Amino acid sequence: MVQDDNETILMTFGLAGSDIEDEKRLVFAKNLLPKLRELDEVEEAGRTEDLAPEVGSKPGLAKVIGMLTVKVNFKNIKSFAEALGDRLKEKPIKGTIKVGENQVDFEVGNPQDLAEFEKTALNLIAAMNRESDGSENSPTDRS
């Protein structure tokens, strides 16, 4: 299968761990956001919008505390994952990766997990893209 280099990947992530206070999550996101926006690999980066805000909240203004969302082209995902790994070496993170309508959740707790996650994420993205293209059949299938 030929990968579409214009395929957009959405990654939403933040600090993992129920013991981390909202203030620490917010500081993490505020410090990392400008660095993400400076990366050539990132098309767009921002705080994650809350899709289920509390009653009375203004639509579009509610954000999830300490969570960030980035848009990256498939052709840039490997270098983006490496750059992100350099910035998050000792921090546990969790989030989702979305390609088209397909989504996978992840949680990474240490540098070894992060290195393994990079490989797994690339494989998952490629598999999800093949599935959404309908090209999951092997070349030997004769339907």
Quickly describe the structure.
With 143 residues, the protein is of the alpha+beta class.
Protein described:
The chain has 143 residues and is α+β, with helices and mostly antiparallel strands. The protein has one domain (8-132): Alpha-Beta Plaits (2-Layer Sandwich). The protein has three helices and five strands; from the N terminus they run βαββαββα. It has helices spanning 22-38, 77-87, 111-133, and strands spanning 8-15, 42-49, 63-73, 93-99, 102-108. The protein has a five-stranded antiparallel β-sheet with strand order 2-3-1-4-5. A hairpin with a 2-residue loop joins strand 4 (93-99) and strand 5. Helix 2 packs antiparallel against helix 3 (111-133). The longest helix is centred in the C-terminal third of the chain and has 23 residues, at 111-133. The radius of gyration is 17 Å and the shape is globular. The protein starts with 7 loop residues before the first strand and ends in a 10-residue tail after the last helix. Mean pLDDT is 78; it is low at 136-143.
Question: How are the SSEs placed, and which strands pair?
Answer:
Layout: E1 8-15, H1 22-38, E2 42-49, E3 63-73, H2 77-87, E4 93-99, E5 102-108, H3 111-133
